[in-house]
Amino acid sequence: MAHDAAPKYRQPLTGILAFLAFFLIAWGTWFLFSDLRGPAKLFPYPFVMYLAVMILVGLWQHMLLGDWPHQKLSQPLKGIVMTMVNLLVTFFVIHVVFYRVLGLGFNFLSQSNLDAVAQAGKAVLPGGKIMSVEAMKAAHFGESALVSFVLIGFFSYPVITILFGKWPIRPSTLEQPQAGFAELGWTSLVTLFFFVVLIVPFWGFLYSKALGSSFGLNTPWWTSINGTNHIHWVFGWWEWSIIALFMTANVWRGKPWNRIRLPQPLKGLVSMIGVFTMGYLMALLCVKIAPLWIGSDTIATLKAAKPGNAEYIRFLWYHAAEIAGFMLIPFLIWHHYFEDRTPFRDVDGWAAFAFRTVGVLVLGVINYLFFYYANFGHWGLGNSHMTSVSQRLIHGESLVWNFWWIIPLLWNDWFFGKWGFFKERSTAH
Question: At what angle do helices 232-249 and 141-162 cross, to 10 degrees?
Fold first, then answer.
């Protein structure tokens, strides 16, 4: 569908109907595949692993390859075909690329390899105890490592499109699929750079301290910065950076980075540093103010878990990432289905920019309150442990739900061209 498509039912009705439709689809499919009361009961793993890779593959299909080779199919056939391809590629990426190919060199990226190590009785814990296959599968080490790779990819793959204008692949006369695969190779290199620096040290710590010894992988260099060696420090500010990046492409409509008058790649580098700065400051703000509302019971439980407040600090950074996750639906639905509507005539003006920014934050807070304090995570999603407020906050796993929630929205926009909610403007009256 063309970018000048018109809402099918006028506004704001189109946006409201889209919001309700995506919520119900996400909720229904969550029950089928993830909810512990449903038939599949895949929460949290391997559900979160498949969901993460699905979004990453969808990003490759739409943002890098421009829907090739299905771009000429009519809707809804195009969306159906692209969804089926997404599922097949997702399975291939997990079970072949990571588990069987990259797993030839990196066991920590292959759950099947780690299970085989335990099966052979070679997973030796400190003190000489052998880790069982059941314990290895329950630990989800390989699946978690794959998810951490995808987390980095949520930023590193689209940043080249959003902030660097696809440099150095564009401008050029290169056509698809050559352009898409060239960009996939370039962005994969960028992803690998960030992954090695920000993710691998945690797994070095895990294998050296928790499972025995590790000489080949370094341990976290960020421990002295914030008092935790956990990967959740990365999660906190990286997730907020993802939010800032995609708000740039959505409700911010390119602001403020499109005001930078520099050639690429300098413009992209300055913009990316700005996004990282914004992301870190937002995460740090959440870390500082979250104790104001999470309650003394939550704080006491976390501080009692590990010496030196390590668990408390870890939680605060992870919860910062969770807070960021609640912003996803507000800015995506506002941009794609409410068309960035504001009370201001100039939709690209600074007043509209500020209005949408504050609006996203307010809606994100409402989303947060609905999940944790109205306890939707318990009665809606089947997280049976979410009884007291402290247990909800500590074990809520809201990021899993928020990323699952956006899949119907993204698929409808990326794959189906907003089919069902928008129509070509030339046919609108």
Answer: 30
